[in-house]
Amino acid sequence: MMKAAVLVEAGKPLEIEDVVISKPGPHEVLIRTAACGLCHSDLHFIEGAYPHPLPAIPGHEAAGIVEAVGSEVRTVAVGDAVISCLSAYCGHCEFCVSGRMSLCLGADTRRGEGEAPRITRPDGSAVGQMLNLSAFAEQMLIHEHACVRIDPDMPLDRAAVIGCAVTTGAGTIFNSCKLTPGETVAVVGCGGVGLATINAAKIAGAGRIIAADPIKEKRDLAIKLGATDVVDAMAEDAAGQIVEMTKGGVDHAIEAVGRPASGDLAVGSLKRGGTATILGMMPLDHKVGLSAIDLLSGKKLQGVLMGENRFPIDIPRLVDFYLRGMLDLDSIVAETIPLEQINDGFEKMKKGDAARSVITFN
To answer: Packing angle between helix 40-47 and helix 342-351, nearest 10 degrees?
Structure first.
């Protein structure tokens, strides 16, 4: 039995319930959750903008300690500190064998229809495991290919945000944009993902990093993380300001919040031959596009899932960046809160005036 925050009905607050977690199967790992970040992606499911069978436990940006492993597990051991990642990979599909692990649909990493569910209520009814993890709970039972061992010196309340926000933002810079030192970058949206993108652009040697956000406190935080310039994203001439200050536009414009207007701002900030990258979870019926003149100017548009990560390699490297003082997770984490304050944390997220809230477990 463990406590978890359960989404019972879309649009309603999460409910703290006692649920039952199963024992590890052959390739499964039982983790004592130490910390879990509140991610805007969770809010999309909580509010019903993205559908999911209910009841279910959200939460996917987590770190913890391995408590038990299945008979066939070879990648982690009891006592290991680990970071979980929603990009669970099978290892043998077309995407995995071609090096695009983040696109794996991970069917083999979930229990089959005829098997007992990993999480149930005390009456035996199933509780859905959201995004392969369900980390808003005292324990996680996941496939071994959904977590990676990390340096035990890493503080777990900081490690948690690497599992999604930092992997997505940094991965976009390192893996998707393949940023060349000296290139210019605009980041639209300075939440957890956007701030991680800015910090990674600094690490990669970007020549100029422009942060666009409507909230001054977030723009100030972006400068602390490495932005060289800031713009009010709600200003009518925001794209024009970016084009003017860079004398023609940026090489890379990264949308990191999931608002249609933010996608337009990213595209409008590009120079000839520049690339716009969409990270945020846009409304499902929304389309982002390039005009004919954009195409004739060699501009490009790409979508990126979870920073095109190869998380068993990427996450330990990001941990090392933090331990060496290069990656500033302390500024990205705004507060730590107990599980019982999770709904308050999401209300703060809706206001948009803080970076990352992280749940910590005893």
So the answer is: 100
Out of 41, 84, 102, 134, pick the active-site residue: 41
Residue written as tokens 């024009």? Answer: 240
Q: Which candidate in 27, 36, 39, 104 is catalytic?
A: 39
pLDDT at 166 over 80: yes
pLDDT beyond 90 at 155: yes
SS3 label, residue 239: helix
Whether 279 contacts 255, CB under 8 Å: yes
Establish whether 134 is a catalytic residue: no
Handedness of CA 311, 101, 355, 195 (dihedral sign): positive
Helix axes 216-225, 192-204, angle to 10 degrees: 30
90 among known catalytic residues: no
Is 0.90 surpassed by the pTM of this model? Answer: yes
Q: Residue 137: what are its φ and ψ, rounded to 5°?
A: -155, 160
- Point out the catalytic residue in the list 36, 96, 147, 164: 164
CA-based nearest residue to 45, from 173, 148, 134: 134
- For 85, counting Cβ atoms within 10 Å of its Cβ (0-12 exposed, 13-18 middle, 19+ buried), the class is buried
Instruction: Kindly state the tokens that stand for 90.
Output: 């099978």
Please check the confidence at residue 73 and state whether its pLDDT lies above 90. Answer: yes
| DSSP-assigned states of every residue in 244-306 | HHTTS-EEEEEE-S--HHHHHHHHHTEEEEEEEEE-S---TT------HHHHHTT-EEEE-SG
- Single out the catalytic residue among 27, 36, 40, 44: 44
Q: Is 190 a catalytic residue?
A: no
Of 40, 60, 145, 252, the active-site residue reads 60
**Catalytic-residue membership of 85:** no
Q: Evaluate whether 332 touches 198 at the Cβ level (below 8 Å).
A: no
Element (H, E) at 123: none
Per the structure block, which two tokens stand in for 268?
A: 């409008």
Verify whether residue 39 is a known catalytic residue: yes
Between the CA of residue 296 and those of 266, 270, 349, what are the distances in Å? 18, 13, 39
